[in-house]
Amino acid sequence: MFCMPFVQTTKLTHIYFKGTPLETVALKDIDLEIPEGEFFALVGASGSGKSTLVQHFNGLLQPTSGRVSVFGDDISTRINRNSLWSKVGLVFQFPERQIFSSSVYEDIAFGPRNLGLDENEVKHRVETALKDVGLPAGILQIDPATLSGGISRRVAIAGILAMQTPALVLDEPGAGLDPQAKKQILLALKRLQLEKGTTIVLITHFLEDVVDFAGLVAVLKKGELIASGRPKQVLAQPELLLGAGLEPPFPVAFTRKLSSKGVRLNSSPVTIDDLARAIQRTYQNTGPGDR
User: Fold this and answer.
1) What's the pLDDT tens digit per position in 82-136?
2) What is the pTM of this model?
3) Domain range for residue 262?
4) Is 180 contained in some domain?
5) HSE (side-chain half, CA atoms, 13 Å) at 166
6) Could you give the number of structural domains in the chain?
7) Which of 82, 101, 119, 207 is nearest to 159 (CA)?
8) Does the residue 137 lie in any domain?
9) Measured between alpha carbons, how far is residue 83 from residues 27, 77, 91 in Å?
10) Is residue 278, in this structure, part of any structural domain at all?
């Protein structure tokens, strides 16, 4: 069955302050397609253009040149851009700065209410989203201003999840969270993708998270798309990652170090389990005289 892409860009270029002394090319000739229903990861060093790119996905930015379509609609028209808020949820890098309500409940309920939902459905979505980010129902009447930074971030993410948009774009949602809280949020996002077909776009510099959760990954370097594909193919290239200012996953870095010592594995492992199997197979295939 044919599914239109969630996002399709053609020669997307974005220039900040064009024609001024501060002119900066943030994106250059980006050709990218993100399938609907995919868990897609976008990686790159700071300043590579990741945040600029995803802000085109919900119409916050428009291309300086090139074309961007979202769910088949060209975002160059205002009517198409104006409809994106109900289709694409965007979690900024510091989502807690988006909190403005007097209680946790009111903040999470704000988006669903704007969709015109009845209060029973709003309540259900608030409670579900709060559970997805690992927070107890007892927090609902608390003033968000009194919460810690980490809990505030989870409340802000819950507010986006409660919208139940067909697509979610998240810019480093786990930043500042403890590992357990971050994993809980990523697992909730994965469930949304698998159970409801929600398209997930995740910006992250934790490449291990890409391996564990994403089906596709793209690498940006200084505003240019330098690689895209399955994580186990893209992330198995340490020189590519290091050239993009990224630290390869531990199994990739370890394999590279082994190679520098003359020990070559018979595969390119990206996960810990892959690494263990590769070492076992290499050892089994090595004769006594080679050890």
Assistant:
1) 999 889 999 887 767 777 788 999 999 999 999 999 999 999 999 999 998 889 9
2) 0.89
3) 249-286
4) no
5) 16
6) 1
7) 101
8) no
9) 24, 11, 17
10) yes
